[in-house]
Design the sequence.
């Protein structure tokens, strides 16, 4: 499980069904399932992605399939990064910078 920081003021966009709406927008409405207050998505190489809000940020847990084509892997990574961009308010570059700074 990885805890992603959320940009200041952006968390209000995720409350209620905001997180679910972002998942549906990125991965498709038919892919999102709610289990015990957490959302699960099975898409491409993600088997599954689980996500939920915590006090300190966005919790994301992923299990990746290893036997997928390069095209599926590239598409999955693109969708995953798009989801994190919309959910956290930080771009991939900003998330990397923050991760290096925190390490």
Sequence:
């Amino acid at each position: 499980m990885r805890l992603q920081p959320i940009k200041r003021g952006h968390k209000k966009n995720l409350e209620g069904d905001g997180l679910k709406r972002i998942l549906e927008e990125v991965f498709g409405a038919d892919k999102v399932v709610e289990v015990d207050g957490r959302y699960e998505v099975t898409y491409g190489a993600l088997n599954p992605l689980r996500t939920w809000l915590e006090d300190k940020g966005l919790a994301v847990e992923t299990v990746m399939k290893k036997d997928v084509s390069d095209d599926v892997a590239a598409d999955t990574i693109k969708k995953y990064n798009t989801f994190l961009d919309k959910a956290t308010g930080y771009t991939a570059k900003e998330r990397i910078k923050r991760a290096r700074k925190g390490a």
User: Anything to note?
Assistant: The chain has one domain: 2-97.
